[in-house]
């Protein structure tokens, strides 16, 4: 049986640092409203503060050690699995797996497979609902191209959604990355597309719920 590895975060506090400004702003507003005696509004912002903490939660994950396994980069539901003749970036035929994240999913994104970042392409765009097919091409997105040690390439694309207005990516060109590593997040509902070589053996189907860094999407040959 394959052993698993735990991807420990930079901090024991299980909330992504990117959420701190939102949490502090909401908590401060709650305190001010409570001080002014505006109880109903204070309760609303208190509930909002709790929800923001919930949204930016960043739990530890146990990543499969199997060197051929490709793990999900996001929590959510698989909405597309299949080959595409072209991608929004080139005319290469690839296997596309799309994962939709609702506002209730963990939104911290993780690396699907070991490799090195070849380039990162940011594209400003629209904000259609992330579960629509046209979101892949027309929405604001950030594409990360990674090359493996055996010279195979794949892409992870962070896509903004109807509510999402901020894509965060901590990677730079040339970075070496490991499966399960945290690399960014998208605020408040979004989608990730993964483009893989067509000979990857898939392990997921449409409608399956997945967890970032843990659920195996497929296997590199």
Question: Care to describe what's here?
Answer:
The mean pLDDT is 85. Helix 1 runs antiparallel to helix 2. The protein is elongated, with a radius of gyration of 18 Å. The protein has an eight-stranded antiparallel sheet. It contains three helices and 16 strands. By secondary structure, it is α+β, with helices and mostly antiparallel strands. The protein folds into two domains: 39 residues; 154 residues, Glucose Permease (Domain IIA) (Distorted Sandwich), CATH 2.70.70. The protein starts with a strand and ends with a strand.
Structure keywords:
single chain, 221 residues, alpha+beta, Glucose Permease (Domain IIA), 2 domains, 8-stranded antiparallel β-sheet, 3-stranded antiparallel β-sheet, 36% strand
Strand content: 35-45%
Cα-to-Cα separation, first versus last residue: 19 Å
What is the H/E order?
EHHEEEEEEHEEEEEEEEE
Total beta strands: 16
SS-based class? alpha+beta
Radius of gyration: 18 Å
Helix percentage: 10-25%
Strand order of the largest sheet: 11-7-8-9-13-5-4-15
Kindly provide the name of the CATH class of the largest domain. Mainly Beta
Report the biggest beta sheet as strand number plus sense, adding barrel if it closes. 8 strands, antiparallel
The domain tally reads 2
Task: Explain the layout of strands and helices.
Layout: E1 4-7, H1 20-35, H2 39-55, E2 61-64, E3 69-71, E4 76-84, E5 94-101, E6 108-110, E7 115-123, H3 135-138, E8 141-147, E9 153-160, E10 167-169, E11 176-177, E12 182-186, E13 190-196, E14 201-202, E15 209-210, E16 216-219
Antiparallel strand pairs: 1-2, 3-16, 4-5, 4-15, 5-13, 6-12, 7-8, 7-11, 8-9, 9-13, 10-12, 14-16
């Amino acid at each position: 049986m394959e052993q698993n590895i735990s991807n420990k975060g930079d901090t024991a506090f299980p909330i992504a640092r990117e959420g701190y400004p939102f949490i502090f702003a909401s908590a401060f507003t709650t305190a001010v409203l409570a001080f002014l005696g505006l109880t109903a509004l204070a309760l609303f912002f208190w509930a909002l503060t709790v929800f923001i903490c919930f949204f930016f939660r960043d739990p530890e994950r146990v990543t499969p050690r199997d060197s051929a396994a490709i793990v999900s980069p996001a929590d959510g539901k698989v909405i597309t699995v299949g080959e595409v003749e072209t991608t929004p970036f080139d005319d290469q035929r690839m296997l596309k797996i799309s994962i939709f994240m609702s506002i209730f999913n963990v939104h911290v994104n993780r690396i699907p497979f070991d490799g090195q970042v070849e380039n990162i392409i940011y594209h400003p765009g629209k904000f259609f609902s992330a579960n629509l097919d046209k979101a892949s091409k027309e929405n604001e997105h950030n594409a990360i191209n990674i090359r493996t040690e055996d010279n195979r390439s794949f892409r992870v694309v962070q896509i903004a959604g109807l509510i999402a207005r901020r894509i965060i990516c901590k990677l730079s060109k040339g970075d070496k990355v490991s499966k399960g590593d945290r690399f960014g997040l998208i605020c408040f509902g979004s989608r990730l597309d993964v483009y893989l070589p067509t000979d990857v053996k898939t392990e997921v189907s449409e409608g399956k719920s997945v967890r970032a860094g843990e659920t195996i999407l497929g296997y590199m040959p």
